[in-house]
Amino acid sequence: MNARALDGRHALVTGAGRGIGAAIAAALAARGARLTLLGRSAASLQETAQRLPERAANCIASCDVSDEQQVAQAVATARAALGPIDILVNNAGRACSAPLLQTDLATWRSLLDVNLTGVFLCTRACLPDMLERGFGRIVNVASIAGLTGRPYISAYCASKHGVIGLTRALARELAPRDITVNAVCPGYTDTDIVRDAVTHIRAKTGRSEDEALAALAAGNPQRRLITPEEVANAVLWLCLPGTQSVTGQSIAVDGGEVM
Prior knowledge:
By secondary structure, the chain is α/β, with parallel strands linked by helices. Helix content is 47%, strand content 15%.
């Protein structure tokens, strides 16, 4: 595959300051894409930008994806800096765990606002560029929790199921316009979110760090955490030439956990 297969393409990645988002940005930049890095922390985004290839043109836009006005401003900034947006990766998200009866309305709304409404707002802001150019690639980072039910994360599951439903509906709507819409669904991935989950498990159960990590990895038949780079490779593939017939799909990156 051409090492510069994404030359001339402007890709906007949300939640690009760390973890999966930073890995996705690096993978796209390595194939020649111009990058807009979007997230809450300008400092984290700058760290990601500094790790990109020297030739990579990039734009940094601080933004809360659940805020309509901030999203509109961030996308306008990106467009002014690097031109129309060809690729959108909706990666920003948050997670928390609690039994349903301990999940308050604020937590419920917060997860849906970031994980689902954020995808809606960013997609709506970027889509006019894709429609005008007759080309677009939208990849939503969901979760295996969007493919199956999981105890103690009902709000997170609901938000990620919503992302997959939105992905499927939009894929049908945009198929005639050479705009593909897909979801990538990681299992437990070695990121700050999982490290926070380990801390929570240790506090609640008294298990060691290794025992907590093993508990999270146990559902994966490969008995390990997914790496951010593995998720990034799946996202990259969906953005490369030759995948224009792949749309409306929810691709699990989970070692065979959900089949």
